[in-house]
Amino acid sequence: MKKTAIILGASGLTGGLLLEKLLVDDRYETIKLFSRSRIEGLPNKVQQYIGNLLELEHFKNDFTADEVYCCIGTTAKKTPDKTMYKNIDYGIPVAAAILAKENGIPTYLVVSAMGANKKSSVFYNRTKGEMEQDVVNQGIPNTSILRPSLIGGDREERRILEKIGLVLFKAIQPLFIGPLKKYKIINAESIAQAMLNLANTTSNTDVIITSNDIEQLAKRNLK
Questions:
Q1: Domain NAD(P)-binding, which positions (predicted)?
Q2: Which residues of the chain register pLDDT less than 70?
């Protein structure tokens, strides 16, 4: 039986790449997008639900699927207000996990970040850590939390300082060996592929997936 997938954050880099993969994957009959604005030019396979994701509970009746892919995330630059930042990076993924649990969705995957730690003194790391904990607390059978390092890929918006950082970081990539592998730059395409592979295998038992493991999962050929 063909499946239905939900994506939160399909307008972002990782979510957009995941959407492209699901569109050509014949295991999926329906893709549901929940977002603030419509993405034009998508085929009938895609159903779009437009509204305020900070009030995700209003979508409860439509929030039904086999899998949820949460690629929601903002940055300190885009969202300098810490209350709003937490509403997005903590509130939306946790609200989605609650709805997934209530509606009997068995698979939930969310993109977090390296350094996530609910006990951290750093606000952003603590926010991610608290999100992870409350997602896990929902008890969804197949939960995967991906912690990528610095994400590489072509973004629509211009992030000059980030691009400079990526160039400098790439220059020292050969130094990241052994335990340091998890700090290597990871492409958004690899994250999207790893999420898709995780959702279609029962062999992975790790809830937390670090960056180097994401890269390995992306290389699996499950089709």
A1: 9-150
A2: 153-184, 221-223
